[in-house]
Amino acid sequence: HMGNPNFLPYETIVRATSGELEAIDEVLQHCSKRIRIAAIENGHIDRDTEDSIKSRIVAALFKFRFDEQPYIKTE
Questions:
Q1: Residues 27, 55 contacting (CB under 8 angstroms)
Q2: Which of 9, 20, 26, 40 gives 15 a disulfide partner, CB atoms 3.0 to 4.6 angstroms apart?
Q3: What residues contact 31, with CB distance under 8 A and at least 6 apart?
Q4: How far is CA 66 from CA 18, 62, 63, in A?
Q5: How far apart are CA 52 and CA 1, in angstroms?
Q6: How far apart are CA 75 and CA 44, in angstroms?
Q7: Distance in angstroms (rounded) separating the CA atoms of residues 65 and 38
Q8: What is the 3-state secondary structure (H, E, C) of the chain?
Q9: CB-side exposure of 38: number of CA atoms within 13 Å?
Q10: Cβ atoms 54, 39 nearer than 8 A
Q11: What is the pLDDT of residue 64?
């Protein structure tokens, strides 16, 4: 089962949030087209904006914690 090619595998995200550089790179590669589009200013890709977006994505990854499982109903 391949899953949706538009989504990163859950495992990759978990590995990235635990700081695995290879997985972080996979996340950035996966987002690269959208990052470029978001970094266009005056018709050109602004490298500083692109770098800023990438660093914010990496920072956001480290805010995730998978040790807690939300929405588990306890009786």
A1: no
A2: 20
A3: 57
A4: 9, 11, 10
A5: 35
A6: 56
A7: 27
A8: CCCCCCCCCHHHHHHHHCCCHHHHHHHHHHHHHHHHHHCEECCEECHHHHHHHHHHHHHHHHHCCCCCCCCCCCC
A9: 14
A10: no
A11: 77
Residue 31: the pLDDT is 94
Residue 67: CB atoms within 10 A of its CB come to: 4
Alpha carbons within 13 A on the beta-carbon side of 73: 1
CA neighbor of 30 nearest in space, from 54, 14, 48: 54
**Residue length of the chain:** 75
pLDDT tens string 16-67: 998 899 999 999 999 999 999 999 999 999 999 999 999 999 998 888 766 6
pLDDT band at 7 (very low <50, low <70, confident <90, very high): confident
